[in-house]
């Protein structure tokens, strides 16, 4: 499902995070429970408890104008963002069969083989959201310090949460 992602230019301290949350409102044409989560001190996500149904109109309204964050008063920080869910896209990946099944509005449209990572580094499981996709990304394992270094272009990259 789609998520709202707010990115701030610098880390927001815990007290500032609480103030920001008080000034954000998500409304839906078909009410669905959801929640905010700080992924990092500078990145905030809202996602529903379940997938939003087709036809759902979702609006985020924020009024951060005048808040004191890191000694600075925010100015001109009122915003509204709206989207409508027009299709249901679902991908189901099975570690048991090493297959990826892609559905569009309940109809199977693709069936792919998948590798799911290498031994010792299993792919995470659960209900995940696609945050971004890229035709190619340069990956360098030296940045996280794992043994067996690699530095290479990786194709059809999908970032999930």
From TrEMBL:
Keyword Acyltransferase: yes
Domain Bacterial Ig: 4-67
Listed pathway(s): Cell wall biogenesis; peptidoglycan biosynthesis
GO molecular function annotation: acyltransferase activity
Coiled-coil segments on the chain, per record: none
Alphabetic keyword roster: Acyltransferase, Cell shape, Cell wall biogenesis/degradation, Peptidoglycan synthesis, Transferase
InterPro entries attached to this UniProt entry: Big_10, LD_TPept_cat_dom, Transpep_catalytic_dom
Transferase is among the record's keywords: yes
Name of a matching Pfam family: Big_10
Biological process annotations from GO: cell wall organization; peptidoglycan biosynthetic process; regulation of cell shape
Protein name: ErfK/YbiS/YcfS/YnhG family protein
